[in-house]
Amino acid sequence: MRMPQPATEPKRALRRSWVTLSVVALVGSALGVAPSFIAPQSAAAATFTGGILEKSGAIEKDAQLASDLPAGSCVVSAEDKEASEGSQAGFSWYTFEPAVESPSKTRWGLSVAFDNSQDRTFADWGFTNSGLMGKYLDAAQIPAMDPGQTLVDKIVTHKADEILVIDGYRQQRNLNLVAELTDQKVKQFAEATAANPVRYAWQGDYKQENPQGPRATTGSSVTFTAIVNPWPSENIECNPITVSWENFEKHVIVPGVEGETKVGTINIPAVTGQGTDDSMARMVVEAYDGNGKFIGTSDTEASGGTQNLRIDETTGDIYFTWPEYRGTDLATDKNVNFSVIAKPRTVEQLQAAGENNDLYGAPKTFDSSNSLTRYNKANVIDSKAFSLDDTEYHNPQYDKTDASIISGVDSPTGPLATEPQKVTFTQTADLIKELAKKKTEGGFEAKVELDEKYVYEGWTVEMDGDYNVTVTAPENPKPGAFAQPKITVEYSNGSTDVLQLMVVVDPNNTQVTDLVRPGLSKGKLNQEITSQVGTRSIMKGHKPVHPAKFEIDPATIPAGWTVTVDETGKVTAKADDTVASGTIITPKVKATYPDQTTDEIEVQFQAIADIKIPNYDTVTGQPNANVSLIPEIPERGLSGNTSDEAPQRYTFEDGTNKTTLTSKDGKTWTVYVDEKTGEITTTIPKGAQEGDILNVPVQAHYSEEGKQKPQTVIGTVVVIKGDLKASYDVQETGPNQAVDHHVDGAPDGSTFSFGYADGKPVLTQTTDNGWKYTIDPNTGVVSSTPPANSKPGDKNTVTVKVNAPGGLTTEVPVTTVVKLMNNWESNPVIPPKTVYPGDTVTSPLAIEKPEDIKVAENKPYEIVPLPEHITPTGDTNEFGNPTYTLKTDNGDWIVSLDKDGHVISTAPKTAKPGDQVKIPVTVTYEDGSKDVTSAVVNVVKVPEREVPFKVEYKYDDTIPAGEYKVETKGVPGAEKMNADGTWESTKAPVNEVVLVGTKPAESAKDVTWTVPIPYPTEVRENPDLAPGERKVVQEGENGEKTYTAKFTAKGSEAQVAEEETTKEAKPRIIEYGPGLNPSELVTKTEKPIPFDTQVVFDDSLEAGKQVVDQKGELGTEVVTSTQKIVNGKPEGDPEVTTERTKEPTKQIIRVGTKTTGTKTSEYEVNVPFETVIQLDDTMDAGTRETVQKGKLGKDKVTTTETIENSKVVNTKTDTERVTEPVNEIIKVGTKGKPASTTVEWTEKTPFEVEVRVNPELKPGETKVVQEGKQGEIKHTVTVNVENGEVSKKDSSEKISDPVKHIVEVGPAKTQTTLTDKHTEKTPYDTEIEFDPNLEVGKIVEDQAGVFGEKEITKTWKLENGEPVGDPETSEKIIKDPTTRKLRVGTKCVCEDPTDPANPCDPTDPANPSDPTDPANPSDPTQPGDNPGETTPGTTPSDKVTTPSTEGSKSAKSGVQSGSSLARTGVSVEGTLAAAAALLLAGAGLTAMRRRNSQR
Questions:
Q1: pLDDT (tens digit, 9 = 90+) per residue, 1215-1239?
Q2: 1225 Cβ neighbours under 8 A, 6+ residues apart
Q3: What number is the average pLDDT over the span 716-729?
Q4: Are 786 and 733 in contact (CB under 8 A)?
Q5: Nearest CA to 266 among 164, 343, 156?
Q6: Facing residues of 94 across strands?
């Protein structure tokens, strides 16, 4: 059994599974063509397995012999009456008549033969003729000829039992042969072949030679007939059965009966005769999967397996019940196959068919009638394959498959992101929303799954109801980070479409650009000094972005200076006359980039002149001592030259050489300065106190007095005590660099401190301006550290207290000056580098510095400071420097330095393209100052290329010439580029092996065919592509060539005699990125500029509906990058230019917030049953018997809320009785003397309903946050009868409080009120009147109680969607309740009983049931509407009931009024009334007994 092929070709070319052949041309082959030289062959259909095929066998349609009989006829009949012979359906006849040339002029004869050449068996046959032949043909009975005899040339094989009868009257002669079939004969016919048939013959002689007139075997009346049996594939009249198949695509598989699908119709031709056709009952339909495996049938008895097909016996329609495809082996199937099969007929069915077809004969059938395979095996009527690959018909898509965001920035022009950054992928046709609908809704039952395997921590992905996907990036996303969600759409047959989306984080401007700090810029007073802020790229593949603007921080500009900056980053400073020469400033420059990100950097300026500025030390002295200070002239002046001018003279600020100054303690000092040498002299005042300080400002003058402003320098004099002389040296150091000061002149045994606090020496000190000091109390060594922000020229002095032996003490100044450090004039730079995963790269360190600045001799370069993710390995590299482990998410790097500070980085093999690491490097200069920079290394993808496979040919003489077969399918290999530019194989190609047929056809020795010429592939380098990048610039097209081949007798060799190229092949051209030769890559990329989207909320528009008032359009910009490539790697920074080609257009969307509609909820409540009490004077008083158990009824309560704009404007409640309650009937004994009885029941108290607003819910959405529970109150009523009077005592005990029912509602933000409106039933009163004229135990309901109804409205005020205060509540009476009126009988009609000695207690039943407490009442406030039941036998006018006071407020009696019963909502009145009646009956008996005793 062969599998049929699908009726349609796939519609989506991308999903075709055609074999793609190699494009490598053959060299030296006789054919010289690619293997696809024969048109694509359909794949061989899989063979059906299982079902009838394996159970009993079946004959395929293509193996069935076609009938040579007319359609609709099982009768073989000679059409040409004059023909001497004929044959049909394996039945042959032959006649012989004498002629002039015949050897015998009187001999005539006939023969019939049977064979199986037409696959037929026979049910009857015969011969007949008639005519006026009496003159030359006598009546006779002619027996059949013997085997071996010949009739002319026909050899008789068997002697027939049939006798040819000739009879007639006068001249009329009738000839008849009537078949006498047996099982053996039919079997002989079925086994006979066309070459060896079963042949019978008869012959006779005329009385005249060559008579004139009708003949015995010819003429218009001659008839040879045979009746064949119909095949299983035919109806009983040999009319073929056919099948009409349905045509469907985009079929939705719904497993089970509800998804039953019509797949075709069996067409059985109507019968023209009188018989009844048996064909439909013999039909079987089987189903097979795409691999030919049996999966179901319409007849499990015939096929086995599962019945999932049925045939409508009336119409012949075929229906299939689909199995489950999703999640099963069937999910991989691309089609399903159906076969209609006809089961063989029984002998009885063949007999019935023969009787319908043989109207004038007596057909006979036997077991041998089914001896041929065509009869005893099932016949395949037809087969059909339906394609199930839904991916051929559906193509769900999104508006884009990949997108990018800029880290921390909403767009290339800003602003900075203030909320998590998102990208939304919007569905386009086919819409998944439509595919996922149910089949009944016009959908395709698709299932959708969101795969977040490649959505890493911090990223979130959400899919809304329309299957639009929103990807949200983490806060401060890292450039190169990405999220790759995958949406899988699974169709009803298990086939899937996979939609992969990608969001990548692009760097912002500050992440690719670093500001370059310029060196110290020097200039003279009143002259402009300029400094250029530069930029450099710190990320591979990105050119540095020039800031959109620069600004100077005004807080960093000292007095006397003006500093400006232009748009290029050029900073201009100018110092006026108030600024001292040599002053250094460091103003801050703020750069704002186009995307609104910012960065800051300090620039340095120094006001200089071609002068040398002298310096005075600090001198100490005791009171009344003469001291002097001589200025020190530096070797180089402010301009850095030794030729700078030294001061020409010195004066005080007032221009004199003598002045009077005041010290720190207020003492007056007289001070002199030598005009030529600058020496300061003074005498310390006699009364000066130890520690007093005098600062002496001296003006140093230069030759050009009008041009060069005098420089003020200061000398310091510190007063020490007595004869104790100690001093500290003045030291220079850099910012944040400690320096030691040593004491001189202090006696041995002295101690040192910065003073005393709480009686203890102070050994550490931090000044207000940030200088830090420590002191050794024994050696006096002071360590001084200027603040990090100190400037060259800054100076600070502190005082050290020296305590010498003998009680001497003094305070000594310690002065520290900040010098110009090497790191102020140096700038280390490490350009960014790229590396392949698993490779090593060296990042060179370059230091921009003056020639006279050198690095430290010991450890000039170090990898410090170390962040947490960089740790020492404990090993050293070949240069003796330590190595470090740098941890990343994608593996550990090994980093170290060489002898010149170059950074050596080895990436792990697991590194991913886009990874970036930064290695900190600290440079230490000879003066101890330090600079810190970083080496940035980016991971790039290793260049790869495809290696094509070759094609090998083998000739196969078992395959017909002109055909081929792919024995081994070719698979391309792959190569990657090494660092040295060579290519390394990572996957070897698998050659394709093709078998070429050489077997010649039987009908011709030459074979001609047309074959395609495979297109070649040209691979060429494209410098515009990145290394390793590939691009197909032209798809190949096959050419065409015609061949004529002549095959030898061996069938395994061939010669090509002719070949003609009719179409040239078009090559496939692939370009790849440049190799390792030095080159320049120019890359142009068109980038979309996202548009802004403005969302406007519209409460007049339907909720959830969106209207695009203005469609957004992306802008575009073209980025051109020119990158120099050396040794296959980028060298230096690329030059990048950007051109805006189109501005984006804002998108404006209106979103509807209006909500309308209704919300319906349903629930069921129990309806309590009533208890009917029947009094029985044969039972002891107080005893009871339950005759019928009570059953609760059910009411369905439907609440419908009308909602407008998220506001409930109306509430309607309907109650429908689902199940009526069944009353409980209890017999109560009255025999004896009742005295009292006690009745207990539990009341269910209703709970309150609280409605509150939850802004987190959608408008109109409700949520039950706390289920309400009823409370319970236990009631006890005791009824006493004494002297005919009835009294009642009741009490109540609370068991539990009700629990509030809380419902949350989600309103709209614009909603100001929330209204809840519902109705409640109001209870009715029950009045009880005791009637002495009514028999005890009877109760008459004079008026039925009817519930009232009221409407309750609660309105909450809302602010921002939250309720404020308590709701306003109002009630409206819709209907008043109707009081229930009852009469209770107290008349006794019984005989005078005796007084029992020990009457039983009727008030204590053994196990009283509690009919008033339903198992689980849902709504205690809504009892049944018919609380009363009529006792059987009463009339409507005198209705006697056991009353139910359900919902009653009070009970009234015509004799005595009892207290009100609590409203329990359930029937407790029956028990109470019965008890009262029982006691009244006892009272009546007592009264009767008293009357009798008075007679």
A1: 888 888 888 887 767 675 444 555 5
A2: 1171, 1172, 1174, 1186, 1187, 1188
A3: 81
A4: yes
A5: 343
A6: 85, 111
